[in-house]
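Supplementary notes for students who missed Thursday's class. We covered one full example, reproduced here. Read the sequence, then the structure, then the short commentary at the end.
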Amino acid sequence: MSSQILTHHFGEIPGAPVGTTWATRKECYNAGVHLQSEPGIHGTKEMGAFSIVVSGQYKDDKDEGDTIIYTGSGGHEPSDRTREQVRDQEWTDFGNEALRKSSETGKPVRVVRGYELKSEFAPWEGFRYDGLYTCTRAWQEKNRDGHYIICRYRMERVPGQLPLRRRSTNFPRYKLLPGEVVQPPAPMPPPVTPRQRIMQQIGALVDSDQRTHGPSKELHR
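Structure (token representation):
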């Protein structure tokens, strides 16, 4: 696959199915899923957006799982890691034109969620690929503080994909997916020493917690 095709690729990336998780943005970049090290939107104004990252950097983002109200880029000082808005966002800002174009073309956009996102659909750790979405609407409005204009995008998840993971109340576990069953533990031999009895009791508590709160691991690459 040429670098041009890899860079301008709509849809899933081979080797990175839904649920794949990376420890860092750099690993996600190297996998070809989101080819931007910092900006949350990857695309061109001519073709549209190929991928976005929802990482909690903008407080106006709303994540309802299958529907995301995504905030555009810009409006803050590039050196400010807090993303505090100091001016209006513009359609001509980097990434905004690309995602606006996607609202016209209907082409799928890869969505990656980050651990800092305040959402039950966010991973506990790292960055996770959560499938394809389409941008169904693009508009501008005042931010929730009422001070500056922001670009807004309604992202709808493409049907027929694997369901999204939800956080459990117990870190770092997740709720069971529909139809998912935690296998019961294999029977253990009867304890012989006091230490073995203690270890078996600890193991039983861990197994019970998994059956209650779901698995704690995701698919890592």
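Commentary. Residues 1-5 have pLDDT under 50 and may be disordered. The helical segments are 3-7, 25-30, 96-105, 194-213. If anything here is unclear, bring it to office hours.
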